[in-house]
Amino acid sequence: MNPSCLIHRLTQAERQTFSETGLLTVENALSTQQVSALTGLTDQIFAARLEAGHDPRKALFYPNFIQDNPAFADLVDYAKILPKVWGILGWNIYLYHAHLIVTPPSGLPRDDKTFGWHQDSGRVNQEVESRPRPRLSLKVAYFLSDTSEPGRGNFWVVPGSHLEDTLERPPVGIGQPNGAVPVLAKPGTAAFFDRRLWHSASPNWSKVTRKVLFYGYGYRWLRTKDDMTVQSLWAQSDPIRRQLLGWGVNANGFFSPTDEDVPLRVWLRENCPEDAA
Ligand SMILES: O=C(O)CCC(=O)C(=O)O
Question: For ligand 1, what atom is nearest to the CA of residue 216?
């Protein structure tokens, strides 16, 4: 990894925004060329799923896509983003989950039904007894389509809700929780969100198909949340990417890593000692 990536380290202001709101957006994280290439690949996947019978009006949730193309793998240790991920979570991390979502126009009239609000990680939220719940992981959402206007299948959040273990929803299934807002993101924007942030997908009432790539980073002792059959990429990956793709020396090293398990820590010691602690 090139030390020039260190200009993208998490700033104090970004840390504060993320800690206080559970969300951090970075505009122009992807260039126009990257957006265009990644959109082409996403369109190919969507077309293949339609061919296989996917309903063209329904959102496509497509996990385990990293090995489908090198351009997807290149975002795993993306220089503009990874320094902020380790700035938040530290160095004992990997990509525990990745999915892309394509939300075509629903063709339905706009309504005000309550969306599917949730925190990430399923049973973790019942079975870990600390309050507030622990952060454990975050996702980076790369917006490929223009969701800078509401009604386009936007990603919705309740800023600041990540420290709340419950979310009060409107009683009759109409309307959104207090404080809920759409993330208005232009193509190329990366949105980091804390797994505990109450968030939701929303219907696409526009004519613009929404396309987003989600990269979930968590601690190395956390299990994968989809099949993550990325082992085929290990041999061709440099040591840091290999760590991020789930490689390790042995089982114990996921809990008590040696230097060999976590080349990211070794690299930080040499290039950015303040982040190696
Ligand atoms: O599609 C969206 O905007 C929401 C995605 C989501 O809920 C998630 O990644 O956990």
Answer: 9
What is 3-275's CATH number, 2.60.120.620, 1.10.1740.10, 3.40.640.10, 1.10.275.10? 2.60.120.620
Query: Which pTM was predicted?
Result: 0.98
pLDDT given at position 202: 98
Which residue's entry shows tokens 């800690």? 19
| CA-based nearest residue to 161, from 123, 199, 126 | 199
pLDDT digits (tens, 9 = 90+) for 158-189: 999 999 999 999 999 999 999 999 999 999 99
* 155 contacts 139 by C-beta, under 8 angstroms: no
Ligand 1 center from residue 200 Cα (angstroms) = 6
CB 35 within 8 A of CB 188: yes
Kindly give the number of the ligand 1 atom that is closest to the alpha carbon of 61: 1
215 Cβ inside 6 Å of ligand 1 = no
Q: What is the mean pLDDT of the chain?
A: 98
Cβ of 155 below 6 Å from ligand 1: yes
Partners of residue 87 on adjacent β-strands = none
Q: Decide: 98 in ligand 1 pocket, CB within 6 A.
A: no
What are the CA-CA distances from residue 2 to residues 211, 267, 272 (Å)? 29, 10, 12
Q: Quote the distance between the C-alpha of residue 127 and its chain's center.
A: 23
